[in-house]
Structures are given as structure tokens and as C-alpha cells.
Design brief:
Layout lengths: L3 E5 L3 H13 L3 E5 L2 H11 L3 E5 L7 H9 L9 E6 L3 H10 L3 E5 L3 H16 L9 E3 L2 E4 L4 E4 L2 E3 L3 H12 L5 E2 H8 L8 H15 L6 E4 L3 E4 L4
Helix pairs in contact: 3-4, 6-8
Length: 229
């Protein structure tokens, strides 16, 4: 079956461009130019993914995201926000509400399609348990042994470094804000602040050596774990 994607975008040119390219990529598309009608449709039809503009007539995109993520019937639908670059505070809020990713306007269609495919792929995969061994290219994270190896060689990490790496690696490609990372590792052996997270990422990259590129900075927002090609 084709995946069903809802586009919520009030700019007709952008909406039509998205719809055309996503249809060419094999998806069924429903389009909306206002928030209230889009929300009603999503709650009734439960699509596979939502591309959500933030500045919308009728209802702001953040309010749509908030309502969907608080509803058990719709909380698992991936949301990719489509936003102007200047709305960093809105992007951070959306991610903390549960959105999966964001795309800045103007955007590359190839990148957008890749993000859509990645979000759909993540949705179809079983969620890792607390004891699942995570593997990504040369990296292996064993939560039970609290051990990380790179190219088969163990690396020494602090509790906070281990927590950050594991949290990011659990959902490759997802953007995580600093506040989300803080919440995930609270209670470890380090004073956890936004500045501390940045310092820990620097330390992690140093210890990962030639594989430091697994940890990507998302300027103004946070970090993501990027699986090797």
C-alpha cells in the first residue's frame, strides 16, 4: 500500500511543489491550506506522515503538533515541520512537543524527500528496548555492559557521554534539542546544563576519532546522530 502523507501549507506554490514531488515518489497526498481542517482530517484518517508548516491560518502549526502528540490515536504519526529559517524558537518548541524533524525554507527537494523516507523508515522499525545493543557502522553500544566499541575497540566514556551517545543513537536522524538531551541523561555524574551538553559532545567527538561525524550539530537547535552511508 502507498503511504499517506498530509501536507499542511498555506503557500499554494510550495504546497503544489511538495505534492507533485511526493506523488512522484510514490505517496498518496492530501493537501490543506489551513490548520483547523487539517487537524480534523488527521484525527479522522491517521495518515502515515505529516508535513506541517508553522505559520498557518486558522491554527498555528505548533498548536496542531501539540494536539496530535497529546492524542493517543495520533501521537505516533511522524511530523516534519516546514519552517522559515528565522523561527528557531518555534522549531525548538516543536521538537520538544514531539515533532520528528524540520525542514527550513527554502529547502532542497532531494533533502526533503530523503528526510521523509527516513521518518517513514523509523516509524516502521521496532523501538529499541532499554537493553537493546545498538549498532551503527563501526559503532556498538551495549547498555547492559555500559560499553561502547568503535571498530571493535572499546572507548572509555563518562556516564554522561554514554547517556548522550545512546540517546542520540536510539533514533538515528532525529533532531534532539539540548533540553531533550538534558532530560534524557539527568541524574548522571555531570552537572547537566545546555553548555555542559555542548562540552560533552566535543568530548564524544574527540573519543570517536575518525568517526566523529556520526554526531551532527543542528545549528541553533541541538544535535542528531547520523548513520554512516
Amino acid at each position: 500500500m502507498k503511504t499517506r502523507i498530509v501536507i499542511v501549507e498555506d503557500e499554494a506554490d510550495i504546497r503544489e511543489l511538495l505534492a507533485y514531488n511526493l506523488e512522484q515518489d510514490g505517496h498518496d497526498i492530501s493537501e490543506f491550506d489551513d490548520g483547523k481542517n487539517a487537524l480534523k482530517y488527521i484525527e479522522n484518517h491517521h495518515p502515515d506522515l505529516i508535513l506541517l508548516d508553522l505559520m498557518l491560518p486558522g491554527m498555528h502549526g505548533l498548536d496542531i503538533c501539540r494536539k496530535l502528540k497529546r492524542n493517543r490515536d495520533t501521537e505516533d504519526i511522524p511530523i516534519i515541520m516546514v519552517s522559515a529559517k528565522g523561527e528557531e524558537s518555534d522549531i525548538i518548541t516543536g521538537l520538544e512537543l514531539g515533532a520528528d524533524d524540520y525542514i527550513c525554507k527554502p529547502f532542497s527537494m532531494k533533502i526533503l524527500l530523503a528526510r521523509v523516507r527516513a521518518a517513514l523508515r523509523r516509524k516502521s522499525q521496532p523501538q529499541p528496548s532499554e537493553h537493546t545493543i545498538l549498532r551503527a557502522g563501526p559503532l556498538e553500544i551495549n547498555p547492559q555492559l555500559h560499553r561502547v566499541t568503535v571498530d571493535g575497540q572499546p572507548i572509555e566514556l563518562t556516564a554522561s557521554e554514554f547517556g548522550i551517545l545512546r540517546f542520540l543513537a536510539q533514533h538515528p536522524g532525529w533532531v534532539r534539542t539540548r533540553e531533550q538531551i538534558i532530560d534524557a541523561i539527568r541524574g548522571t555524574d555531570y552537572a547537566v546544563t545546555e553548555r555542559a551538553i555542548d562540552v560533552q559532545i566535543v568530548g564524544l567527538r574527540r573519543k570517536l576519532g575518525s568517526h566523529a561525524g556520526l554526531l551532527k550539530t543542528v545549528r541553533g537547535v541541538g544535535y542528531r546522530f547520523q548513520e554512516p552511508e
